[in-house]
Amino acid sequence: MRWTIQQLLTSRSERVDIDKVVDVTELTERDRELRNVSPVRVHGYVMIDRQYATFHLHAEGSMTLPCARTLRDTIVPFDIAFTERFRIDGAPISNEDETLHEPENGYVDLLPYIKENILLAIPIRVINDDQDPSDDTPNQGNGWEIVLDEDHKKTDEKTAVDPRLKDLAKFFEDDQ
Question: Sorting pLDDT into bands at 50, 70 and 90, what band is 68?
Answer without folding.
Answer: confident
